[in-house]
Prior knowledge:
Number of helices: 5
Number of strands: 4
Structural class: alpha+beta
CATH topology of the largest domain: Alpha-Beta Plaits
Shape: elongated
Radius of gyration: 21 Å
CATH architecture of the largest domain: 2-Layer Sandwich
Helix content: 25-40%
Order of helices and strands: HHHEHEEHE
Largest sheet: 4 strands, antiparallel
Strand content: 15-25%
Amino acid sequence: MGKMKLDDVDRKLLGLLQENARISNADLARRVGMAPSAVLERVRKLERRGAILGYEARIDPKALDMGLTAFTFVRTEETPGSIESGELLARIPEVMEVHHTAGQDCYLLKVRVADTEALGRLLIEFGRIETVRDTRTTIVLTTVKESLALPTDSGPGHAAGADPDADTAA
């Protein structure tokens, strides 16, 4: 998608949609102080430009008997820069995220399964991919924070709520 310029209204709209993607256009318009027709056009423009990737329901993993979360590092033997193994791993339904990484391991996966037995079966499935050489898995005991929401109220390179003019010298 490349870098796009977002003004304060765009950022406010994105923040409101992240909080509640089912918010009505009228409520969006009221919250940003604009006409509903102008807000609808802005949201459509954000969708066309790829700033809004989609809308989806967040489901409690336990409701689907997928209460165990784990992170697995996967080392593969493939041509540098190739992501073929990652694409194969991404096709496995229990794999929620696949990140191609720098360093000793090639991929970092976030997986969700029912229990440790299901995790064991999943790791065997990873091993069936011809290029997979090694895996290391960490099981999550408690999730303190998990979110897909991005900070929309701060400029590029600044942490949300951070004061860019604050003196950080000791």
